[in-house]
Amino acid sequence: MKRVSFAVYGGPDVLRLEDADQPDPGPGQIRITVHAAGVNPVDWRIREGQFQHVRPLDLPAGIGQDAAGVVDEVGPGVDGVRVGDRVFGRGANTYAESAVLTAWAPIPHGLTFEEAAGYPSVVETALRILDECGVQPGQRLLVHGASGGVGSAVLQVARDRGITVTATAGPANQDYLHALGAHPTTYGHGWVERVRRLGPVDAALDLAGTGVIPELIGLTGNPRTVISIADLSAPQHGARFSGVTGDVSRALTRATDLISRGRLHIPVQQTYPLAEAAAAHIDSRAGHTRGRRVITP
Asked: pTM for the whole thing?
């Protein structure tokens, strides 16, 4: 089979398309023929070596964690899923023609493989950080850098919970954020005052990692109500960095419920073939994403 891997940490040019053995599912795992793999910022952060001191890899290594496809082998001890089922979920080395998943769920009715591949990690992250920041119905949440996959999910889940959202993004994505139920404003010079004019902020999420933790703390008045998934320096300011994955299976169940009720939809901005994984990373790192980017073997 074909897969994308890298032998050294570095820029997108270290990614290589190679021949590899098909993985075997272990106990509690399934293997799928991959029809689409989600592109997440954590993928290029891992490739760059940002986590090598806390989560070192044995190189060369594959890349990717989200995928959607068709089950072709079921590991020992797995019930409730059969060969031929259409599933989406999370595993390892998903930029490949075949991958093993450790958490999965049936693809909700009406979703394509490309759409489904964009949900697992972003929905788990969105649900986790909303719970961690403690924002309640009737309160106002600020989401900084809100137009990507996680932001798209956060805005819609917050709306479903009765939470008011102020969201920042580039000028081109203001209408998109408004359509998701947020009160949008642009980042850049003067953004703090623009946020203040929209109303007092009870909690804030940093999804962009652009060095705004002190400003977010100033807006909420409490560093414990500020969480970042992109700025490792957040704890130095008293805020929190959230990077430990929670219960993905539970998140997929909750996502399926939201999708089935028409309360959650994350668009796919662009798809890339396996051979263009480097381009997908370049575009993801550049930001300004509206929804998700996915790779199709």
From this structure: 0.90
